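Input chain follows. Return structure tokens only.
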Amino acid sequence: EAMASEGLNAIARMKITTREHLARVRAEDGLLIVDLLQYAAQVKDPAPFKEELVDTRPTAPERKLTRQLISSMVDDSLDLSERTDAYTDRVRELIEAKVQGKQVVVPQPVEEPPIVNIMDALKRSMKEASGKKAKTAESRPPVKSVARRLPSRPVKKQKKSG
């Protein structure tokens, strides 16, 4: 209660399995909550990577596309309680299988897919899309203007006399 009322957090060292971790202990709703932290040596300084960055300014269509992509992935109904730790579940299944005397077969490792730079892929996709538009426009015959043949206002039907 004292930590919560003062808005304080505690820093602790915890041993989990065979390794020591840095942790933050905070009070919330009458509970003590522990968050694992990273030691400074585990966190890379971003400054050296700044030299590798290419100074780019996205165009208005690129910004619009990015916003559309992000908004298409937003899930307002996200419920993290529906998420499970698949690794722990699988380990538990393997342990239960061994306890029951079943033979555990280790699957062959799957080759990792290549890492794709998302911005490069997006740029390629946009180039391909604009290239297809240009090719399609080149392969089509020119559109003849039909505006001259259309009346400027609707023609009234004339009643037949007689």
